[in-house]
Amino acid sequence: MQQSVPSSSQSPSQSPSQSPAQIQPESLRSERWGINLNHWYVVARSLELQAEPLGVTLWQQAIVLFRDAAGQIQAIEDRCLHRQVKLSHGKVVGDQIECSYHGWCFDGSGACAAVPYLNERQKLPSAKLRSYPVREQDGFVWLFPGDAAQANSAPPLGLPEWDHLNYIATVSLIDCQAHYSFLMENLMDMYHGHLHQDYQAWADPVLQDLEETPQRVDAHYQAQSYYKIDKIWSISQLFFPALRRLHPEPLDVSYIYPHWVATLGQDFKICCLVCPISETATRAYLIHFTSLNAFDNLHKLPISFRRFLKNRLFGSAQRILDGLVEQDMLMIEEEQQAYLQNPQRQSHELNRAITSVQRLIRQQVQQGKL
Question: N or C: which end of the chain has fewer CB within 10 A?
Answer without folding.
Answer: N
